[in-house]
Automatic annotation (TrEMBL):
Residues 297-353 form the PAS domain. InterPro entries: HATPase_C_sf (IPR036890), HATPase_dom (IPR003594), His_kinase_dom (IPR005467), MASE3 (IPR033425), PAC (IPR001610), PAS (IPR000014), PAS-assoc_C (IPR000700), PAS-like_dom_sf (IPR035965). The keyword Transferase applies. SMART domains: HATPase_c, PAC. Gene3D superfamilies: Histidine kinase-like ATPase, C-terminal domain (3.30.565.10), PAS domain (3.30.450.20). SUPFAM superfamilies: ATPase domain of HSP90 chaperone/DNA topoisomerase II/histidine kinase (SSF55874), PYP-like sensor domain (PAS domain) (SSF55785). NCBIfam families: sensory_box. Residues 417-634 form the Histidine kinase domain. This is Sensory transduction histidine kinase. Residues 357-409 form the PAC domain. The lineage of its organism: Archaea, Methanobacteriati, Methanobacteriota, Stenosarchaea group, Methanomicrobia. Pfam families: HATPase_c, HisKA_2, MASE3, PAS_3. The chain crosses the membrane at residues 25-47, 67-86, 107-128, 148-166, 178-197. It comes from the Archaea. It comes from Methanosarcina horonobensis HB-1 = JCM 15518.
Length: 635
């Protein structure tokens, strides 16, 4: 039954991730193992003592076993064939990825349907039509069909191992080795099943052990390695695409440098005297312009075209004559949002003869299609130093822009996946702390575990916000504080129904280096207020304020109302943000210095404020009020 459990686990994990798994080998194997495990489950129910089938019999048991093994061997054989035809060579466009994800999900459903039909057909052959060949005869043992089937299954598995080896570059090394080892063990198991004459003999027992071990190796390959290290398996295709994009970017960079040389743009120095090399460059320009996949042009002093050469209609949809005659103004082709930068560059070109325009903008073709283009324009120099005309090149960079966008999306996916994994691991730690606390009866020990659990949760919530938010490295700290305080009030709910929470929060976006320490600080302060500030009181209020101190012109409170603060901090106006956590409880005793106390929570607050280079002040006038001034260094 262990093998049945493993088979179902493999199926559940693969099926849950079918839209993200771009490796169809794993999709097919995962679906196949659901049906292999189901037949193995029926096989287990046929043993003596189970009393599920009216006629248990060895013949029925071995028939189900043989069907499951045929299904397993054929699945390993055809899986590499789907892997070969899964994706075409080359780089894919970004807009195709969603479609491919849907195709992978649809592929999983198609495989599930095909396996359903095959499995049902085999079961009908055994239980209803009863035309499945006899595999065991009482008194004489296994039939020839059974023995030959084991050898045939072994041969099919050997062929599948060869196909897997051919496609080994599509897998992580560890995953490939585990899959290969699993197939080899399955082959040994089948050979063992072909050698025994009675079901109680030693080769039969060895064969079952080989089968269990082979299933476990599949589990390791597909579940453990495949999903504990998602960047190495789930994003394998993304890695290949990224490398393609980088190679494309290098090529486009070389092409761009060549274009600059062709139109005479020199970033290092301006040549005052014409040299023989200029003649060669001019000849090279005419040769290059014949083959360059862009538009070369010359403009008059009013930026109207006087000469155009290149694939004008292919790039814009308009004919060359339409642009030269003024029937269609090139500025009208440019997307309205980008026209302002074009006009500004034209103004600079007129005022500065040495100015070189390098601009990227979007154009709308005649059929409505949007294209990204890059323009390089400069003034044409004559002997007087200014001819009044302009020349340049415009070429299509849509592919490069899509590559950059794809790379950015890849980076976002990776960073978000990291945040997701960290959040999950922290939640596991939090759950372990909660489980461990249940083993103790001492209230102080239980409280210590709960405090540690809340600290871990405060960090996990930050990674959850970063995983789900638009920004990769900053988060809306006001929104985070609302969720954190709600979680804390839920944690300390017993006997605290009369305690109110008042939030005065401005929109503040913080980087991780600031947000994580600050989140723990708020966790400690609110926890301390809920635990100690209102003992003996049925009601009270905790107030949290977050604002931009620079914008609001905040100044430190008078020194005589402050205790436990750094005098230099009170004179420092360099801090941009102010966080106040206050309560109207009984307050911290006057004789206690919160910066030197033995309390772990207060020690943490002091250490973390220093970590973010902030300043902390304590006002004991009415209850307890901590004021923290800080900057957003991590943003």
């Amino acid at each position: 039954m262990f093998s049945v459990y493993v088979a179902y686990v493999i199926f559940l994990i693969v099926w849950k991730s079918r839209a993200r798994l771009e490796n169809r080998y794993l999709i097919l194997i995962g679906v196949a193992f659901f049906f292999i495990g189901s037949i193995d489950f029926l096989h287990a129910l046929t043993f003596r003592g189970m009393e599920v089938f009216r006629v248990p019999g060895i013949n029925l048991t071995i028939r189900l076993w043989l069907v499951a093994r045929y299904l397993e061997a054929i699945s390993f054989l055809i899986a590499p064939l789907f892997l070969i035809s899964n994706r075409g060579p080359g780089m894919k466009e970004a807009e195709n990825r969603y479609r491919e994800s849907l195709e992978d999900s649809a592929f999983a459903w198609k495989v599930f349907l095909v396996y359903s039909v095959i499995t049902i057909s085999c079961l009908l052959s055994i239980f209803v039509f009863k035309n499945f060949p006899v595999v065991y005869i009482e008194g004489s043992g296994l039939t020839l069909f059974k023995i030959l089937s084991e050898y045939l299954i072994s041969f099919i598995l050997l062929c599948s191992l060869f196909l897997l080896y051919i496609n080994r570059d599509r897998f992580e090394d560890k995953v490939f080795r585990l899959l290969a080892a699993s197939i080899i063990l399955t082959i040994f198991g089948e050979l063992s099943f072909a050698l025994y004459a009675h079901v109680d003999e030693f080769p039969n027992l060895i064969g079952h052990y080989f089968k269990l071990l082979s299933f476990y190796l599949i589990y390791e390959a597909v579940v453990y390695l495949g999903f504990e290290e998602p960047c190495s398996l789930l994003f394998r295709e993304l890695k290949h695409r990224e490398e393609d994009f980088r190679q494309k970017a290098i090529f486009l960079g070389d092409e761009y440098n060549h274009i600059c040389r062709m139109i005479g743009v020199n970033r290092d120095s301006e040549q005052k005297n014409k040299s023989p090399s200029e003649d060669k460059d001019q000849e090279g320009y005419h040769s290059f312009s014949q083959h360059f996949p862009g538009i070369g042009f010359q403009l008059d002093e009013n930026f109207l075209p006087v000469f155009i050469q290149g694939p004008v209609e292919e790039m814009t949809g308009y004919g060359k004559e339409e642009l030269l005659s003024g029937k269609m103004n090139f500025l009208e082709i440019i997307v309205p949002e980008d026209q302002l930068s074009i006009l500004e560059n034209q103004r600079k070109l007129k005022s500065n003869p040495k100015f070189v325009v390098e601009n990227e903008f979007r154009i709308r073709k005649k059929n409505g299609e949007i294209k990204w283009v890059r323009e390089i324009t400069r003034k044409i120099q004559d002997r007087s130093g200014d001819s009044g005309n302009f020349q340049g090149l415009v070429y299509d960079i849509t592919e490069r822009k899509m590559a950059e966008e794809a790379l950015e999306k890849i980076d976002r996916i990776r960073v978000k996946e990291v945040h997701h994994r960290i959040k999950n691991n922290l939640q596991v730690i939090s759950s372990l702390l909660s489980l461990q606390a249940e083993k103790f009866e001492d209230k102080e020990v239980i409280e210590a575990f709960r405090e540690s659990q809340n600290r871990v949760t405060s960090i996990a919530m930050i990674h959850e916000e970063l995983h789900g938010g638009k920004s990769l490295d900053t988060l809306d700290f006001a929104d985070y504080l609302q969720k954190l305080t709600a979680d804390l009030f839920s944690s300390y709910r017993v006997g605290k129904d009369g305690i109110n929470l008042k939030l005065e929060l401005e929109d503040v976006w913080l980087g991780m280096d600031t947000a994580i320490p600050l989140g723990i600080i708020v966790n400690e302060m609110v926890s301390n207020s809920l635990k100690h500030a209102f003992s003996g009181k049925s009601d009270g209020e905790i107030r949290i304020s977050l604002r931009n101190g620079e914008m609001n012109g905040e100044n430190p409170a008078p020194k005589d109302e402050i205790s436990g603060s750094d005098p230099d901090c009170l004179e420092n106006n360099r801090f941009h943000y102010i966080l106040i956590v206050a309560d109207n409880g009984k307050g911290i005793p006057e004789e206690m210095d919160f910066q030197t106390t033995d309390s772990l929570g207060l020690q943490l607050i002091t250490i973390l404020v220093e970590q973010i280079d902030g300043c902390i002040e304590l006002n004991r006038d009415q209850g307890t009020e901590f004021t923290i001034r800080f900057n957003n260094e991590g943003k």
